[in-house]
Amino acid sequence: METKVAAVSMKNVTKTFGSVVANEKVDLDIYKGEILALLGENGSGKTTLMNMLAGIYYPDEGQIFINGKEEVIKTPKDALNLGIGMVHQHFKLIDVLTATENIILGLEGKLNIKEASKKIEDICNKYGFEVDPKQKIYDMSVSQKQTVEIVKVLYRGADILILDEPTAVLTPQETEKLFRVLRKMRDDGKAIIIITHKMHEVESLSDRVAVLRDGRYIGSMTTKDTTVTEMTNMMVGHAVTLNIDRPDPVNPKPRIVVKDLSVRSEDGIQKLKNVSFTARSGEILGIAGISGCGQKELLEAIAGLQPVETGTIEYVEDNGHEEPLLGKDPLKIAEMGVSLSFVPEDRLGMGLVANMDLADNMMLRSFRKGRTPFTNRRPSKKLAESVVKELEVVTPGISTPVRRLSGGNVQKVLVGREIASAPTVLLTAYAVRGLDINSSYTIYDLLNEQKKKGVAVIFVGEDLDVMVELCDKIMVLCGGEVSGIVDARKTDKNEVGLMMTRVGGDEIHE
Amino acid sequence: MWNFLLAFIPRAIVQGVPLLYGSTGEIITQKSGNLNLGIPGVMYVGAISGVIGSFLYENSTANLNPMLAILIPMLCCLLGSLLMGLLYCFLTVTLRANQNVTGLAMTTFGVGFGNFFGGSLIKLVDSDVPSIALSATSSYFSKSLPFASKLGWFGKLFLSYGFLAYLAVAIALAASYFLNHTRKGLHLRAVGENPNTADAVGINVSRYKYVATCVGCMIAGLGGLYYVMDYACGVWSNDAFGDRGWLAIALVIFTIWRPNLSILASFLFGGLYIIYLYIPTGMDHMEYQELYKMIPYVVTLVVLVVTSVRSKRENQPPESLGVPYFREER
């Protein structure tokens, strides 16, 4: 490669939130024409660091050099003027506006939608995007929204591009498409920073990796010369093993039998159509699918939160007695041992109360057990302490409001609580969404432990590589229908990926 | 029937004009994500500020200059409502106080402010009736085109109003164009929908909220001024303005945040507001009148139900309405 120019150079950058140090004396260089993967555990300060480049946060200390010149980035506008554009993990788009309106938002000059649409089409053609300028954001799929975000950044002429976990919500095919575009942009001389937890993506996409741990810069290396184990060790700070075991199911018996389940949403849209499957004790049943294909509705139907149109759900006890779950209220179902730990897109939407502290959130599951009108805080405090310890939750203490924790830590609290209630059926959705590799493996171990105890685990996941390694069976949903149920030991992620986009997944072999 | 309409429609329109000012102002405010429930108070303050201005001017000179007689009350009115807007913004945007509480407090404050100064002025003139009349100033405000009365029904329906009525329509149309066809309007909508997003693309959220709310308050204040100077013929009496401010807020929902729709809707509401006067009830059943007075509010409730059921995304309130914005919130 020709001589590299440092597009961005951060020196001694420090940022604190109250007493929490998010970044401490970070030095980081990013060059033109390269893709840098920024790695680190949850709460290690990757997003904060990038937000300072993008002008969302302002550093307490330190300097930022852009193309060799010291710059002060006070606002997102300053960042954009310097050619820095960030695609956030949670898209910053306005639902009721069209793609074009979102893309030109914040720019100066006379409003000319037609001209803007033309320019958008030019950008799309150059890099191979597909965007309908007139489409409203709320009509778009996640991957389309992401495309709009990237075009928005390019439209402003950004040549330093930051992507925060761009693949967290994409199918393998969509991810591949995104990577093709990113490589094209790199070859175009742009500097690209990508934050991701998926190591195989780091390997396939990035030229260089930089590692943060506890808000500090640990080091960087060329991707070619390193291994997943080395990177993970740097992230965690000590050696870790990266194997998901898959113990063979012991004496699997049907636990949840779902037959011909159909669900319609309130607006009358068919969310599930004739879904039938059996979840067995001691097995992990993976549920794969593009987000919004009925995963949420399925879990909610089992947990008694979602009205069902037709079909049956039976809970099979150890002695073979069948008990219908439909028509029971969620509390009864939970008492039978069906536990739902759902991690929705905004993490705090379901299951945890953002303004309550860890101990009180633990109590949400157990407060009914008390006999007096007064609460007994001691057991929930103990539980909170043990969850913090076992899952290595990064928190100032158990009396911190959950809202203050970083996303991954919030998730650990939620999953930890659900597992602690000793369920017979564990429903998890996106349990590792946004979690770093180390925490993810902790969660996988926890699930495996439950499986060994004879719990029927239903695991709605996103990362197909993991699902293929972790689950015993994988059921693929496509548009609310069962696209197929495969043995996870005999399939690979491409087969599952294809099934996600088409029922059966076969037609694509032309 | 024709004669009835010819009498009724102009009355409905003059009733509707204060509502139109109020709702246009509130729509602009709400588009920035500020739910200003202080609008009724702002309209009171706008009205009394205008009254104070014109009272002082009328008493300072024997010969009124028509230009000054109009400009002084207007400027006083705009200044009074601007101060209310600044107060609201300082509390909700800068200090991030709860918008509902702030708005309600401002309504209480505004009404009290109006009644206090209104009462003081009434004491000053020492008149027999509990009101002050600024008929000279009012005559300038309610002046219609000289040839309007010669044009028969056309003149009566369209040309018989004071200039503030036409200004209200012009402002509503301008607001509509601004929101939908200019870059600043697009930015304002973005701020109300999702300030995080707006901020991330470099829009100054606080500035948009301040400007939109203050301009909104000034427009709403003119509604109060129109009420005293034109509709009420320059007569101020305490509490006469009534609950028109709340109707203006109801209109915002009724028109699903569209100022151009608000023109017709406010005239409709104006008509509904006074329809009880035109439905013969007889002296025995005065209680029916009270029922008729409820019509505008019932209509608003029905509209709320209808727009909630037909959940088209464009017809929903701005998404971050009522939520304070803080950039570094985690």
TrEMBL record, chain A:
<feature type="domain" description="ABC transporter">
    <location>
        <begin position="256"/>
        <end position="504"/>
    </location>
</feature>
<keyword id="KW-0813">Transport</keyword>
<keyword id="KW-0067">ATP-binding</keyword>
<feature type="domain" description="ABC transporter">
    <location>
        <begin position="8"/>
        <end position="239"/>
    </location>
</feature>
<keyword id="KW-1278">Translocase</keyword>
<protein>
    <submittedName>
        <fullName>ABC transporter ATP-binding protein</fullName>
    </submittedName>
</protein>
<keyword id="KW-0547">Nucleotide-binding</keyword>
<dbReference type="GO" id="GO:0016887">
    <property type="term" value="F:ATP hydrolysis activity"/>
</dbReference>
<dbReference type="InterPro" id="IPR027417">
    <property type="entry name" value="P-loop_NTPase"/>
</dbReference>
<dbReference type="GO" id="GO:0005886">
    <property type="term" value="C:plasma membrane"/>
</dbReference>
<dbReference type="InterPro" id="IPR003593">
    <property type="entry name" value="AAA+_ATPase"/>
</dbReference>
<dbReference type="InterPro" id="IPR050107">
    <property type="entry name" value="ABC_carbohydrate_import_ATPase"/>
</dbReference>
<keyword id="KW-0677">Repeat</keyword>
<dbReference type="Pfam" id="PF00005">
    <property type="entry name" value="ABC_tran"/>
</dbReference>
<dbReference type="GO" id="GO:0005524">
    <property type="term" value="F:ATP binding"/>
</dbReference>
<keyword id="KW-0472">Membrane</keyword>
<keyword id="KW-1003">Cell membrane</keyword>
<dbReference type="InterPro" id="IPR003439">
    <property type="entry name" value="ABC_transporter-like_ATP-bd"/>
</dbReference>
From TrEMBL, chain B:
<protein>
    <submittedName>
        <fullName>ABC transporter permease</fullName>
    </submittedName>
</protein>
<keyword id="KW-0812">Transmembrane</keyword>
<dbReference type="GO" id="GO:0005886">
    <property type="term" value="C:plasma membrane"/>
</dbReference>
<feature type="transmembrane region" description="Helical">
    <location>
        <begin position="103"/>
        <end position="122"/>
    </location>
</feature>
<feature type="transmembrane region" description="Helical">
    <location>
        <begin position="210"/>
        <end position="229"/>
    </location>
</feature>
<feature type="transmembrane region" description="Helical">
    <location>
        <begin position="69"/>
        <end position="91"/>
    </location>
</feature>
<feature type="transmembrane region" description="Helical">
    <location>
        <begin position="158"/>
        <end position="179"/>
    </location>
</feature>
<keyword id="KW-1003">Cell membrane</keyword>
<dbReference type="Pfam" id="PF02653">
    <property type="entry name" value="BPD_transp_2"/>
</dbReference>
<dbReference type="GO" id="GO:0022857">
    <property type="term" value="F:transmembrane transporter activity"/>
</dbReference>
<feature type="transmembrane region" description="Helical">
    <location>
        <begin position="291"/>
        <end position="309"/>
    </location>
</feature>
<keyword id="KW-0472">Membrane</keyword>
<dbReference type="InterPro" id="IPR001851">
    <property type="entry name" value="ABC_transp_permease"/>
</dbReference>
<keyword id="KW-1133">Transmembrane helix</keyword>
<feature type="transmembrane region" description="Helical">
    <location>
        <begin position="37"/>
        <end position="57"/>
    </location>
</feature>
<feature type="transmembrane region" description="Helical">
    <location>
        <begin position="261"/>
        <end position="279"/>
    </location>
</feature>
